[in-house]
């Protein structure tokens, strides 16, 4: 999706910049087409090559993609050998002439949305009610590749590990709504114990969860969201909003309450500087300076 928003449309362009096998890329593109996010068309009347372009539904992912992009710049640039300059792009908002910092806000009160300011209504206390709303995203999850070409972009690798894997995403959402212990995750998600252990260890290793011992014998730990983990909340909520906005009238989503204003949570992503919602045409992707 990142490459589609950058204007790449050809199979070889995607493969060169993402650095994955032809078979894996084919599966991902087919999944995006099946979900109505991309469509495939001939490159020209005389060409045998095809282009993959965003549908209206796919274009709706732009807001959450901006948040994901910024999250990588905020949290992951320094982790790659301290090289923010190695990241290929920065964001610029043409409408206000400023560097773009995307901010998730409540549509009603326009305040920033944070994990501590959102709660489930009493009739929907189970986190599972929220997991179902983004189930369609699981089919678009990242397929891991064992090999890299060396030419792939560095952006969004970390974010795809975190929200592109089904179980990792479900653990994050469960943590957003109050789960913190191994047994709670195991029961709520009906997840195999070996998968749960592996995902929890991964989330601790990448500093999204913090492991805190609450019992020595036998050893028991809480898994708490770190500041880095909490900062993923607006991205996941923006993706949830994308799913909700695509629902037809016969379906409805479980409500979330924005405690800052008491309204049902609906998300917009705006420019922090001018408070306008950035359109794709108004966002410029600037190559980072090289040493």
From TrEMBL:
Keywords: DNA-binding, Transcription, Transcription regulation
GO function terms (MF aspect): DNA binding
Keyword DNA-binding: yes
Domain called HTH hxlR-type: residue spans: 1-80, 151-251
Keyword match Ligase: no
InterPro entries: HTH_HxlR, WH-like_DNA-bd_sf, WH_DNA-bd_sf
Identification of the protein by name: Helix-turn-helix transcriptional regulator
């Amino acid at each position: 999706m990142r490459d589609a928003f950058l204007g790449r449309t050809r199979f070889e362009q995607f493969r060169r910049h993402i650095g994955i096998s032809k078979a894996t890329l084919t599966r991902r593109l087919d999944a995006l087409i099946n979900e109505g996010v991309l469509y495939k068309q001939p490159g020209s009347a005389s060409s045998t090559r095809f282009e993959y372009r965003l549908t209206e539904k796919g274009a709706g992912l732009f807001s959450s993609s901006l948040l994901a992009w910024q999250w990588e710049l905020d949290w992951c640039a320094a982790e790659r050998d301290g090289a923010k300059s190695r990241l290929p792009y920065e964001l610029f908002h043409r409408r206000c002439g400023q560097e773009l910092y995307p901010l998730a806000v409540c549509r009603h009160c326009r305040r920033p949305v944070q994990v501590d300011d959102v709660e489930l209504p009493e009739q929907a206390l189970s986190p599972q009610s929220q997991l179902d709303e983004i189930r369609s995203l699981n089919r678009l999850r990242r397929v891991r590749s064992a090999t890299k070409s060396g030419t792939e972009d560095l952006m969004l690798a970390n974010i795809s590990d975190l929200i592109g894997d089904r179980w990792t995403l479900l653990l994050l959402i469960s943590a957003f709504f109050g789960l913190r212990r191994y047994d709670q995750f195991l029961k709520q998600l009906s997840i195999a114990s070996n998968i749960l252990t592996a995902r929890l260890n991964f989330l601790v290793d990448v500093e999204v969860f913090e492991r805190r011992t609450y019992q020595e014998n036998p050893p028991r730990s809480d898994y708490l969201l770190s500041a880095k983990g909490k900062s993923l909340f607006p991205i996941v909520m923006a993706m949830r909003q994308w799913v909700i906005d695509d629902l037809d009238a016969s379906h409805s989503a479980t409500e979330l309450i924005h405690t800052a204003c008491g309204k049902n949570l609906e998300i917009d992503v705006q420019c922090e500087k001018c408070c306008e919602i950035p359109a794709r045409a108004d966002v410029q992707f600037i190559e980072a300076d090289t040493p």
